[in-house]
Amino acid sequence: MSQIQERAERQPRANSVDLVLVTDPASPVAEAYRSLRATVKFARVEPPVRAVAIVDAGTGGQHAEAAANLAAALALGGDSVVLVDANLRQPRLHERFRLPNETGLAEWLAAGDPGAALPLVETGIAGLTLLTAGHVAQAGGPLPADLLGSDRCATLLARLRDDADFVVVDTPPLPDVGDALAIAPRVDAVLLLIRSGKTKRAAAQRAKDALDRVGARILGAVLTDSGRPKRRGSA
Q1: Residue ranges of the domains in the chain?
Q2: 162-181 per-residue burial string, b: 16 or more CB within 10 A, e: under 16
Q3: Measured distance CA(63)–CA(72) in Å, rounded
Q4: CB 80, CB 120: distance < 8 Å
Q5: Inter-residue contact 68 to 93 (CB < 8 Å)
Q6: How far is CA 8 from CA 11, 32, 37, 79, 228, in A?
Q7: Sign of the dihedral defined by the CA atoms of residues 121, 123, 127, 131, in that order
Q8: How far apart are the C-alpha atoms of 188 and 25, rounded to whole Å?
Q9: For 59-73, how does the pLDDT look when each residue is reduced to its tens digit (9 = 90+)?
Q10: What confidence tier does 150 reach under pLDDT thresholds 50, 70, 90?
Q11: Sheet of strand 51-56: strand arrangement
Q12: CA 220 to CA 224: how far, in whole Å?
């Protein structure tokens, strides 16, 4: 199990990327993300891991931070990376990079044109581009789970694999909604995010069981805030 200690709070500079790998690259947390990068890059599995989803088992919202920092670690290591915000209900990745969330994944999927240009944006980190979540139609439009479970989404992921060395996908927390289950079987591997002192064992087991049922390949679990004492009932 990979472990990531609690991040020391630092105020990011104006217009800077809010990632520990940028704001505090020598910290233990940043080093933990570099170790997680090695886990993904050199996993002895077939087929090799090219697209990985971060699935939150109930951390209280740390999935966006984990996905962004893993993607940044891969890019800073010299790989080309596309980071995808598949949290269509409460997108957060654009905030990490101080970017607007205008046209993104939701609009591309809803348009139904697999040949359309992808609305990728530069993040300020060399080699790392972001596909923001965009906005799901509020009235009468397709639901997030329907968009993410569509053939168009599978086409998108295949296209991104062709265009980049790695694809990192952020998904909504699994205990809250099932959107992650639409993405998980279509990527090469899943990292299950567990928070020390927050995620209950039962919630972590339910998340694992749900991923197993849809045929997702779980590469491993990532324990966040591992420097904090565990409280009773946590995973």
Answers
A1: 2-224
A2: eebbbbbbbbbbbbebebbb
A3: 14
A4: no
A5: yes
A6: 10, 14, 21, 27, 12
A7: negative
A8: 28
A9: 888 999 999 999 999
A10: very high
A11: 2-4, 218-224, 189-195, 51-56, 166-170, 81-85, 128-131, 121-122
A12: 13
CA 216 – CA 211 distance, rounded (Å): 5
CB atoms within 10 A of CB 7: 20
Q: C-alpha angle 143/184/173, rounded to 5°?
A: 65
| DSSP letter assigned to residue 234 | B
Kindly indicate the confidence band of residue 226, based on its pLDDT and cuts at 50, 70 and 90. low
* 163-176 pLDDT per residue, tens: 999 999 999 998 77
35-55 per-position pLDDT tens digit: 999 999 999 888 899 999 999
- CATH class of the domain at 2-224: alpha beta
Report the C-alpha gap between 8 and 148 in whole angstroms.
34
- Cα-Cα-Cα-Cα dihedral sign, residues 117, 119, 123, 128: negative
